[in-house]
Amino acid sequence: QSPLPSQRLPVPDSVLHMFAGTEEGPEDDSAKHGGRVRTFPHERGNWATHVYVPYEAREEFPDLLDALLPHAQTCVPRLVRMEAFHLSLSQSVVLRHHWILPFVQALKERLASRQRFCFTADRVKIYTNEEKTRTFVGLEVTSGHAQFLDLVSEVDRVMEEFDLTTFYKDPSFHISLAWCVGDARLQLEGQCLRELQEIVDEFEDSEMLLRVHAEQVRCKSGNKFFSMPLK
């Protein structure tokens, strides 16, 4: 990405000095992330950046995963359980290192007036990334969609300020539960998907378990995390 013209969003010298000698991004080692294929090449000074709502799972959530994932793995044995859960508000974009703090500050200003809200994610759905190099088993949001769209509208405005890619036009907000390399939709959709949905529907107190609060937005840039609480 080319830096923005200085007249649009000047970076104070005090900010630039904070990053002196630390511009290089995280080391890229595919062995550390299961052989996943990067959607864009790693370059010195470029930091992969992602905006999302963290999913604060209830205590019983691992029990639901323990019921779901073994069944999904009978269809696709290479599925791997996610280590953390979230709902994306942006695509993965590339920021130059010295734009990270101005970008986060712009997000904070945009999101400062947004309210907390409840949402439900209880519809099992199969996803792939755009390149079809990864497949995900997810839980799609069935209530709270409008509030997520409001958050995305604010995030998109910041993306536009920095000449970055905005979010999908008709997003399906979801929590990814497990993933695998390659396109596994044929194995997971159809009968397998129906059986996974039955497991969710029949799980004890699933309605309460999968209704949670969105209380903050986070931004991950390289190995840095920033939190923006909702009102």
The whole-angstrom Rg is 19 Å
Name the structural class.
alpha+beta
Please mark out the parts with pLDDT under 50 across 5 or more consecutive residues, or reply none: 1-28
Name given to the CATH architecture: Alpha-Beta Complex
Name the shape in a single word.
globular
How many strands in all? 10
Q: Please indicate the count of domains.
A: 1
- Give the helix level as a range of percent: 25-40%
- CATH top level label: Alpha Beta
Task: Write down the overall mean pLDDT.
Answer: 87
Question: Secondary-structure element order, as H and E?
Answer: HEHEEEHEEHEHHHEEE
Major sheet: 5 strands, antiparallel
Sheet-strand content, in percent, reads 25-35%
What do we call the CATH topology? Cyclic Phosphodiesterase, Chain: A
Number of helices: 7
Distance between the termini: 33 Å
Say which CATH homologous superfamily is assigned. Cyclic phosphodiesterase
Pfam families: HVSL (PF09749)
EC number: 3.1.4.-
Subunit structure: Interacts with PLRG1, CDC5L and PRPF19.
Family: Belongs to the 2H phosphoesterase superfamily. USB1 family.
Characterization of this structure:
The protein is α+β, with helices and mostly antiparallel strands and 231 residues long. The protein has a single domain, classed as Cyclic Phosphodiesterase, Chain: A, CATH 3.90.1140. The chain contains seven helices and ten strands. Strands 1, 3, 4, 9 and 10 form a five-stranded antiparallel β-sheet that branches. Strands 2-7-6-5-8 form a five-stranded antiparallel β-sheet, sandwiched between helices. The two termini are 33 Å apart. Mean pLDDT is 87; it is low at 1-28.
